[in-house]
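Q: Entry one of two.
A:
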Amino acid sequence: MTDLSLGRHAGGNTAPTAPAADINPHAVLGAEIIIEQLHKFYGSVKVLEDLDLHIQPGEFLAIVGRSGCGKSTLLRLIADLEKQSYGEIKFKSARHIREGISADDIRVMFQDPRLLPWRSIEQNVQLGLPKDAHGNASAMLEKVGLKEKAGLWPSQLSGGQRQRTALARALSHKPRILLLDEPLGALDALTRLDMQNLIEKLWTEQGFTAILVTHDVSEAVQLADRIILLDKGHIAQQFDVKLPRPRKKNIDFSELEQRVLNAVLAT
């Protein structure tokens, strides 16, 4: 997982939105994202085609689908790491309609934490922060349970601890939007569950808009307010996750998980 400072697009005809009651009630920070008629081509290969999507401020959205369906491409377009072929992506601040979303308001976390090996854990979390905001790094290290590890090198941490460091680095910037591209895919099962709980806890506290790309349907049901299934560059299905938080793997959880999994397998 890595965090990057990212840019913005401009752009509106939107897909159905998640019900307001299902959106994070503490969303005071998150940004609204409006995607209209989005196309992405690589030569003659169509990765995304005429895609419309409306993401509410503070919503936790999960994107699932088979490999090659366009999940990571969509995330990279939102992050401005790539440019769309056609269409528009617009951002709107939840704080004030006149307040825009800048590059510093968006952070991305990837599967690889990409920590600088010659810098301490605390110095890695401080990357990109002005000196007067270094306290944010210390506070986030405490929140992710790494306060006592601040002076260590990345090589001295476990894989899960390095992911916690990357999460602290992203959130120390207090982003309006956090994009997560398979950030937990390399972790063992127990560490992955711990990280899911930590991400959910910090999302609830901070209210940022979160978009998670994952192959793990159970993870999507565990974390998201809404799940979208991509297939051949289109939104094939959407699932509202109305399960109460904190979520337990009961019959309702298992039924929804199976519905989403069946939909993925049918693509």
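Q: Entry two of two.
A:
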Amino acid sequence: MANNWLERTELLLGQESVKKLSNKHVLVIGLGGVGAYAAEQICRAGVGKITIADGDIIQPSNINRQLPALHSTIGKPKAETLGKRLKDINPNIELTIIQEYLRDERLTQLLSNNFDYVVDAIDTLSPKVFLIHDAIKFGHKVVSSMGSGGKLDPTQVKISDISESYGCPLARILRKRLHRLGIREGFKVVYSAEKVPEHAMKPCEGEPNKKTTIGTISYMPPLFGCMIASVVIRDLLA
């Protein structure tokens, strides 16, 4: 590349750390309000190889919070749209784009590959449990996003081991499901204990793994995504 676009990153981290990140491979599954921002910040930090996966297309209701969602991109695949953006940030990135919902054997097959970190930004419970369980089974480091919907206060967002999370309904249910599978700790979550107001929730129709739709403000999912990226980058450099 003609210019050193990572000059400011190198000034902060040092040349060796930048080189270290360029040799890492991160998997991001779920490219909605949280996952797309996480993937972009991981890309901008100089991680050299990223795999992104999501089977969804961009909807008008995504525009209030999701990175690739614009009026000009409505109806386009999320993974492919975000992939073009990541390649525009770093043309030299080794990028794998998976435009599909990953389930069961397909997900297990993907996780059998070598990843330095796995980002779970799935917003439905059953696939989330399956991803975390299998990622840990294969020995991957994992960071998982809990619910950013219905939250307004950024100062209440926290990072902790899943065993130390509290006040988040999704984290509580996730802990319960994972306990049945023998997993009680060992991966980080980004969550908020801020209470979701009743008026911000309505029943969700047409999605078997999702019972409610929760109102969301523009800045909270990106904040979760940025905090997830911070976990990945700091752990990769540790």
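A: Comment on entry two: The chain is about 35% helix and 15% strand. Residues 15-237 form a domain with the Rossmann fold fold (CATH 3.40.50.720).
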